[in-house]
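#struct-help
A.M.: can someone run this one for me? Single chain, 295 residues.
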Amino acid sequence: MKPDLNARANLLALGAIAMWGSLASLGVALSHVPPFLLTGLSLLIGGLIALPLSGFRLAAWRVPLPTLALGVYGLFGYHFLLFVGLQNAPPVQANLVNYLWPLLIVVLAPVLLPGLKMRWQHIVAGLIGFTGAVIVILGSVDASASAAANASAGFQSEWRWGYLAALASAFLFSTYSLLTRRVPHFETAAIGTFAWVSGLLALLCHALMEPAVTLSLRDWVLIGLMGLGPLGSSFFLWDKALKMGDARHIGLLSYLTPLLSTSLLLWVSGRALTWPVALAGVLIVGAAWLGTRVR
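D.P.: on it. Structure tokens below:
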């Protein structure tokens, strides 16, 4: 793979990662909105990006049924299982399990994609990146609250389904990301089809599983931002990056997501940068540098 294509792919991936970094802050501002309603509306808004991207050619949205199933598997299946995990296990620990997906991309890339080899440097870099994710997520929790939660939480049997769901969500998003390279080529605009079908399924889950709510004008503005950014443009950039670049390198770069997310939360809440976040930054950036130096 040409170095210039890899560099461009990494930039596109970083664009998606930067948008995902804003997801937690927007989620906090919209914490009163039921999650399936929030996801469904955001995905429907995000899917509209495919219209100008395709030059308003609806033919670009059409994909074979197996490809559509893969897209729904990735976008809807991931969010569904993640919500199940967060609701049935301690959220911090469930989120840590979910952030195995970048490591799974690194590990599974040589298995699912022909022509890629597993290097020990990729494994080491993936483990360093995951360590950084653990530090930044645990370090973002109030120390006393974290200590109490860790003392009583652990992997208790009543939470096993939550942890399994979080692990499954990580597996779904990592395999979706890689398998888009194995299906027949489709235009990136077809991500709009994935987003719309997934959004409608999320709204169905809202109707069946969540209480009805009334949204304010502020809610709609923030949902619009979420749909245009972390649940919209990010998926188009992600698809383009994976089509062009080295999935192992992109997986390592993905550990910047929890770092950016936590840093932005600290900034918008007026809190100072903590040493765990700074240490996590060194580990994650170092892991990305190490992994992307290896071909």
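A.M.: thanks! The CA atoms of residues 215 and 274 lie 35 Å apart.
D.P.: also worth noting: The chain has a mean pLDDT of 84.
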